[in-house]
Specification:
55 residues; mainly alpha
Length: 55
């Protein structure tokens, strides 16, 4: 696992924490959707980079 895939996974988990925090604070749904899309894309990019290294 290289540093870029680790960075993507950490960023995705950080954004996921923001989604949970904003959900508990009952922030507007648009912000929560944008954060969740960013978290999903970051986690997917990190996981796909790991998969690319294994093959």
């Amino acid at each position: 696992m290289n540093s870029l895939s680790t960075l993507f996974i950490v960023l995705g988990l950080f954004l996921l924490g923001g989604v949970i925090s904003f959900w508990k604070q009952q922030m507007p749904k648009g912000i929560i959707v944008l954060l969740s899309i960013g978290a999903t894309m970051s986690l997917a990019a990190g996981i796909l980079r790991i998969e690319g290294l294994w093959s």
